[in-house]
Amino acid sequence: MKLLLRALFLLVLAAGAHAATWRGTVSHVSDGDTLWVRPAGQGGDAVEIRIVDIDAPESCQAFGPQAKKALAARLLYQPVIVRTRGFDDYGRRLAQLQHRDQDIGAWLVREGYAWSGVFHNRRGPYGGLEDEARRAHRGLWANPKAEEPRAFRQHHGSCV
Question: Which residues belong to any copy of the TNase-like domain (predicted)?
Answer without folding.
Answer: 20-143
